[in-house]
Write a structure and sequence with these properties.
By secondary structure, the chain is an alpha+beta fold. The protein is built from 2 helices and 5 strands, in the order αββαβββ. A hairpin with a 3-residue loop joins strand 4 and strand 5.
């Protein structure tokens, strides 16, 4: 795994209130996880981000990244597609 990616995962995972972090590539393959995040969620997380981008019919340029918040029970997942990768933060 790339040292910059490892450093980023560790940095995000060490923040207060963060339970886990996941990074997936544009095909939904897991690039790295920390905490409660599970590698098998990578394709699902990437699919959510890509679907949200496709739902926005008001934009001609799909380059802008959307942020998706999923809340359940006492948990939250923030998902953001950054083009070549998708980031999910579990709180």
């Amino acid at each position: 795994m790339d040292s910059e990616l490892i450093s980023t995962l560790n940095n995000i995972a060490s923040k207060e209130g963060i339970k886990g972090v996941l990074v997936a590539d544009e095909r939904g393959l897991c690039l790295g996880v920390r905490g409660v995040a599970k590698p098998e969620l990578a394709a699902f997380i990437a699919s959510i981000a890509n679907t949200a981008r496709n739902l926005d019919n008001t934009q001609e340029d799909k380059a802008e990244c959307h942020t998706i918040n999923i809340e359940y029970e006492n948990n939250q997942i923030v998902i953001r597609n950054e083009g070549t990768f998708t980031l999910a933060i579990f709180m």
